[in-house]
Design brief:
single chain; 582 residues; alpha/beta; Rossmann fold; GMP Synthetase, Chain A, domain 3; 5-stranded parallel β-sheet; 5-stranded mixed β-sheet; globular
């Protein structure tokens, strides 16, 4: 750490948390090597009737690495992985690293624009994808830089006899994937006869391991350059906070998507670091999660607020004992306080809520694991080896004292190398070693930080600054509200007006008077939404973050249609039905 920043948070670290972090100085795949050497027979991955030990996982990853090298992949080349959470995803990720290549984790939900834009920008030469996605990708083949498509399916994740049953059941619905020089089967063709390979890494601090594209919720996606040292050090920082080592066998529920930096780090990389068992879930179904908990008794449950909220809403929740879970990690969006307390009561687990962003590998802040050190609505303190401060919103050069609102900037060994082939964007985000997050926040006297809102989400109503997140918290505390979000929309008189999108709890009936009255009793008048719209669900990213930009764009398109109801209009029901930062 440099010494030009006051660090009041160090006095509030728990006794076992180190003040500094030991930087990671090895290839990231050394985590897998260590686990395979020390715990070769521990289960690394359990999926349906498939069991893969750490010894077998390393062998499979190295065979895949050898196949990539045989196909012409050279160190530093980019290899795209477009898969849901499956055993093949784990194998492919570590195999790409073993080949010395750079992983480009790609969202399986991406459509034409995102696929062409991201893969072309990355210059990815090879792509691992699910066979069900082939029709979408095949239509774009001439527009993509991909030389080889390596195709796998759900059946490949299963062992006999489930793999045979699955193939028979899906025979009619399975898309036809041509077997030719550019589209090959993952195991049957691509890896057949390949020799195991593990490429040395010259400089873990400088060599890229991951090119992670941001979600694009604020514009065109950018490739975030993360090195072996970035991600490896961040894993150490997180483990310093939760005080867990590989000597104790843990099992992780891995339902957060591996193609997202939060899911990749917390649900795949850290478990391998700990030689833990990974329980991958290709899609989130609440009942499946509860059954998985009952069967395998996992000890660590990384999730998102939307996951915890939906599980608490399950009618059969009381039938399941969730007390095997010792640690919950919540990320991707703020966790409402009432959800935090209710889930803690149901599980008895320690809930670790933090903050991060793709550009920081992704974690920068966490609340202490012990409940006595946690503070409501705070993202916690900077993790070991990380500096943070609040600067003025205009120039970003003036450090602000505790209690003052400004932009959060961070500095640490987990901060990205830069944006891929975007020097101007890099220079704007990284200034004098500091990463400018774009988040508005405050810090208290003890070094706890509080996110107020995104800099771009701030709404100016009649000359007053309004931070939608504050209004969201009030709405989410309503007993009849399952989900809610507030956005600013154009207003010819006031400049901008607040609009609330509300999802009622199942079986509940609400009118705009319920929403407005609740807010008026708890907020200044200028913060009360003037427009209210009820929906069955909100548009979200795959990790549960509400897409405010999508709602704003939708509102601009329909603004003159009169579908929203103003809070001070004559009372009438409103109804409409529609759809990392880490």
């Amino acid at each position: 750490m440099n010494t030009d920043v006051m660090r009041p948070w160090l006095e509030h670290y728990e006794d076992f948390v180190p003040r500094e972090v030991r930087p990671w100085d090895r290839p990231l795949y050394a985590m897998l090597d260590d686990a395979a050497e020390k715990y070769p027979q521990r289960l690394a991955v359990v999926f349906q009737n498939t069991r893969i030990t750490y010894k077998a996982l390393r062998e499979k990853a190295e065979v895949f690495a050898g196949a990539l090298r045989r196909a012409g992949v050279r160190p530093g080349e980019r290899v795209a992985v477009m898969l849901p959470n499956l055993p093949q995803t784990v194998i492919a990720f570590w195999g790409v690293l073993k080949a010395g290549a750079v992983a480009v984790m790609t969202n399986p939900l991406y459509m034409e624009k995102e696929l062409v834009q991201n893969l072309s920008d990355a210059g990815a030469s090879h792509m691992v994808l699910l066979d069900l996605l082939w029709p979408r990708v095949a239509a774009l083949r001439e527009r993509l830089p991909i030389r080889n498509f390596i195709v796998t399916g759900i059946a490949d994740a299963l062992s006999f006899p489930l793999n045979l049953f699955y193939r028979l059941r899906q025979r009619r619905n399975q898309p036809a994937v041509p077997r030719n020089d550019s589209a090959v089967h993952f195991w049957k063709t691509f890896c057949r006869g390949a020799q195991r390979h593990s490429e040395p890494v010259a400089s873990p601090k400088d060599d890229l391991v991951l090119l992670q594209y941001t979600g694009g919720t604020t514009g065109i996606s950018k490739g975030v350059e993360l090195t072996h040292a970035n991600i490896g050090t961040n894993c150490r920082q997180v483990l310093d906070i939760i005080n867990v080592t590989a000597s104790e066998h843990h099992t992780f529920i891995s339902l957060m998507p591996f193609f997202h930096v939060y899911g990749l780090t917390i649900c795949m990389i850290i478990p391998v670091y700990l030689a833990s068992t990974i329980l991958p879930l290709p899609r989130y179904v609440p009942q499946d999660v509860l059954k998985l908990i009952a069967k395998y008794k996992p000890t660590v449950f990384p999730g998102a607020p939307s996951v915890y909220m939906s599980l608490l809403q399950q009618k059969e929740l009381a039938r399941y004992d969730l007390h095997c879970i010792r640690i919950c990690v919540s990320g991707s969006a703020p966790l409402p306080r009432d959800v935090f307390l209710r889930f803690q009561e149901v599980t008895g687990a320690s809930i670790l809520e933090g903050y991060g962003l793709t550009e920081a590998s992704p974690i920068t802040h966490c609340n202490p694991l012990g409940q006595e050190g946690q503070r409501a609505n705070s993202i916690g303190m900077p993790i070991p080896g990380t500096d943070a401060r609040i600067v003025d919103m205009e120039g970003g050069a003036l450090s602000l004292p505790p209690g003052k609102l400004g932009e959060l900037v961070v500095r640490g060994p987990q901060v990205m190398k830069g944006y891929w082939r975007r020097p101007d964007e890099t220079a704007n985000a990284l200034r004098n070693g500091w990463l400018y997050t774009g988040d508005l926040a405050t810090m208290d006297e003890d070094g706890y930080f509080y996110i107020v809102d995104r800099k771009k989400d701030m709404v100016i109503v009649g000359g007053y600054n309004v931070y939608p997140r504050e209004v969201d918290e009030v709405l989410l505390a309503h007993p009849k509200v399952a989900d809610a979000v507030t956005v600013g929309i154009s207003d010819g008189i006031r400049g901008e007006t607040l609009k609330a999108y509300v999802v009622p709890q199942p079986g509940e009936t609400m009118g705009k008077a319920d929403v407005v009255g609740w807010c008026r009793a708890r907020l200044a008048s200028y913060k009360v939404p003037r427009l209210v719209e009820f929906r069955e669900e909100l548009p979200k990213t795959i990790v549960g973050k509400v897409l405010r930009r999508a709602l704003r764009e939708e509102e601009e398109a329909k603004r003159k249609g009169g579908r929203a109801v103003a809070a001070d209009a004559p009372q009438a029901e409103t109804a409409s039905s529609d759809d990392h930062r880490a």
